[in-house]
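Hi Q.,

Before the meeting this afternoon, I wanted you to have the zinc ion prediction in hand. No need to reply - just skim if you have a minute. The sequence and ligand are here:
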Amino acid sequence: MNNDIEEIKSKLNIVDILGEYIRLDKAGANFRALCPFHNEKSPSFMVNEEKQFWHCFGCQKSGDIFGFVMEMEGVEFREALKTLAEKAGVKLQSYSPEKTEEKNRTLEILELATKFYEVQLWKGEGKEKILNYLHERGLKDETIKEFRLGYAPSGWRNVLDFLVKRGYKTEEINKTGLLVQKTKSNEQRTINNNENKNSNIDHWSLSLDNCYDRFRDRIIFPISDYSGKVLGYTARVTPGSDESQAKYVNSPETEMYHKSRILYGLDRAKSEIKKQDSVLLVEGQMDVIASHQANIKNTVAVSGTALTPDQIAIIKRYTKNIQMFFDMDSAGENATKKSVKLCLASGMTVRIVSLEQGKDAADIASENPEKLQENVAKALPAVEYFFQKNFQKFDKNKVEDKKKITAELLDIILDLENEVEKNYWIKKLSEDLGVSESALTDELKKTSLKGKNTKDSGPREDIKKIGPTTKKEMLIWEMIGLMLVSSFVWKKACDEAKTRKIFLSDNLLQLMLEKGEQVNFDFTALSNEISTNRELSEKMQNLFSRKKYQLDLNNNLEEIVIEDPWKEFQACEREMEREEKKEELNRIGNDLKLAEERKDEEAKKFLREQSDKISKELAKLMEL
Ligand SMILES: [Zn+2]
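Predicted structure with the ligand bound:
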């Protein structure tokens, strides 16, 4: 691992790498730039080529190429390592080579297919059929190119033949989701659906392969991950063609493409999201593209109807502030409301952008880009928005309506993560409605109980449950998570606990250290053992799935080398020691104040010595 890092560093120049993201100007021995991590008008971001190091005098962030990519892409170290290894042409020792090779082939195929569709749009059949339509929708050529829109021609084997000719095997192509595998029944169905239209059927049904192109005669929207690698597609039916077809056909879930983890446009929007410390969530691909063209570049969309917890976790790497379009009268109201609630529950700040009825962001952006910007600037905090709307919609002087307003608003307030904020809105609701606060609090309790019993409450409860309250608790939970996913770490921690003090303030950690050997350091075994203790087993399950998810988010579990979780565990331990020292320093500080009040010279002297000693220890720990 360390060799990898050194090799990568030796092969890459910080000026080239950072230059891919930001504009660097030579300033004496250094390079200077506008800091990408905070908003500024005059450059305070410096790059030192000799030391291969960057530093911002504005926000005090600094680091090497790895730190920069982590910060810029909002990714963990491992992901940054992968990205830079690729750039440096370094093969990482710790990865399983076959798996990586297979993934690379899949990405290669998707990239080639995307190019194929692009060529079909600009030079092939799509030029006549599609370009006009896209222009009519207000898209400029440069925008169409930026988002790599394409056209999948009609016919059964266009992309398939193209890729096979370039040496890819059908099974390899099939892994990308570009093909549909023929089965008896869908063969029949496809023929029936298309027999009047398609002349290629003979060719297709006689072919040796039992696969054909998934996307035929459709506008192609490539869907990329945060780094711009194409993982899948959404394909819109060609305007004016057979109306009985589905308007949109999407790539299926593949080993690499997971809809619930993709935010459309993130690769183009991420740096702007960071800079503005805010993301704008719109409904569809066209909305994203039109907004970017209208110079609102912090825009992304989800591929389903509502945000998933995975997507929220990804957004939170870049910002905690989200702006959403919301139309109270639209059919999508419930889905959007669900997204709002989920964001509030995970501690994000949500603002709502109002839209005129029946219009989407793309319409407004193409009619009048400034108007869209105006609307976004006027966005209201979510709770305030729902207050306004509900008080407009219902008559607060009627008892029935009072109930409705209460139900609607408590449903939102319940999700707020911050208790102070929660209290504020309850107070406001009580004033606006002329109902006592205690009546509302009672009602809130009922709502929250009801929420627990319905499936609809979603992962809100989980998110709350797994939120640690102190830094120490967070660290302990990290450590537990690491032990649960890696029996190697679990065993090591137990060995260590025999010889030195390990942090026993947590009941689950204590239990795991005691019972580790007995259950053979196995998550399932301990899980069975403590299944009767609901609180404890739920906590364990939560920490286990959270850690697994965290690791899996950036990597497949099989790629994780055994030393890494252990290193992470040790880093947590060190951080924990630092926290304890800091706490000790605080305690001594308080005692010192008291001693000063008492004018107790002897105590003062002793406490100062103690404080110096611990400060030095802390300084040493900080260096590690
Ligand atoms: Zn800065």
